[in-house]
Amino acid sequence: MEQLENLNVVAQELLVTPAQLKTELPVSDQVRHKVHEAREQVRSILDGRDHRLLIVVGPCSIHDVVAAEDYARRLKALADELAPHLFIVMRAYFEKPRTTVGWKGLVNDPFLNDTFHIEEGIRIARGLLLRIAEIGLPLSTEALDPISPQYLQELIAWSAIGARTTESQTHREMASGLSSAVGFKNGTDGSLDVAINALQSVSKPHRFLGINQSGQVSIIHTRGNRAAHVVLRGGHNGPNYDRDSVSECERALAAAGLTSNIMIDCSHANSGKDPQRQLVVARDAAAQIQHGNRSIMGLMLESNINAGNQKLTKDPRQLAYGVSVTDPCLDWLTTAALLRELADGLRDTLPQRARLAASADAA
Predict the structure, then answer these.
(1) Which end of the chain is more exposed for a tag (fewer CB within 10 A), N or C?
(2) Residue 137: what pLDDT?
(3) What is the CATH number of the domain that holds 277?
(4) Which of 21, 302, 36 is closest to 155 using CA atoms?
(5) Rounded mean pLDDT of 129-154?
(6) What are phi and psi of 262, to 5 degrees?
(7) 360 has a pLDDT exceeding 80
(8) Owning domain of residue 291
(9) Cα–Cα distance, 275 to 308 (Å, whole number)
(10) Per the structure, how many domains does the chain have?
């Protein structure tokens, strides 16, 4: 008989179920409390009840768990120091969208050698999230694969939907069920329409195919995620972090009946992928806040222990320590100095901005 299905499928492997992995790598009561608290703090920033600036900072992608934990310990100390002014969340990005080909991230290829031990990648990723959460540092990730949130999302305080997937119905539906706040980036062409459409979609209930904790294919019913906002990351035509671009975004959000919560991605097209230009973008956003802007609620920065990036090698042991294998990053010392500068420069402005917003709401 002629075969009609799986013509291009070489093999199928059974994967550990979310419930099995969570039994193997459980969340402690202490971690559960910390994640819940971090999510509430992010929502308070979005609601204007917390005056602090949300900072999502860390490696473009994590490929070395030892270096990631090293970075996390440094960031935790800085987060505690700057807590009165900044709420700092660490990037823990394990999946990388690709325009053509390339390394797809720790979950897909944890050993960086095209062996694609995905189950081991999920275990490594969850174990790392647990260890970082245990030190009390909130975590963020990009929600890319629609299945992986069942394994990892319970440890995430803030999620991103990337520029390539903001327009995807699958990702809008998935985000409507995420337990964390979520930021939708503008499209790669720089347009706001796809992000604004996504915000309108994600707040509504959806029904779609997915898996449950037992790994069974299920119809997922969501109530909608109202803790969503836009992330300006620039586009093919250039950056969009400047005052005019932010004002345009505010008008578009207002016209759609959406709250003006805007995060500025200091990397990607806003920096032309020059990591040092992230400093320019961050300082410009801070200056806008100092001059009365009320909509910029957060910044995103790509940062690692050491600056720049490097190409993958046939032997991953030859990679330089703490250097990105994807987009180039700021080094740790520059990152820490920048965040201290932002906290110091905004220490008076942020509480005053919150008071003005509260007065306007009361009126």
Answers:
(1) N
(2) 98
(3) 3.20.20.70
(4) 36
(5) 97
(6) -130, 125
(7) no
(8) 18-357
(9) 7
(10) 1
